[in-house]
Amino acid sequence: HVQLVESGGGSVQAGGSLRLSCAASGYTYNRNCMAWFRQAPGKEREGVARIATGSGNTYYADPVKGRFTISQDNAKNTVSLQMNSLIPEDSAMYYCATCSGAYWGRGTQVTVS
Question: What is the mean pLDDT of the chain?
């Protein structure tokens, strides 16, 4: 059974930092593409960042460039999202997923005030 579990969400003040983690079980992602998405209430889901787990190449959506960093830990089969200089507009439910959308976690809430 493939499962993605996010953790690390919480409530922080603007300008603060938060680190999200995604633990994968049931498969290894090292030959796949992993991504973080987010969705605020009443808003469309948007891609935040992705990483090609084989090459390590990354992509970031414009609103988070320079503030967010996606990374992988192959030994632990996890993908993380370091979020710095957080602003209220970053508040959303953050989801870990394969880039294709085949697998999704249940999400972790991030609130920035």
Answer: 93
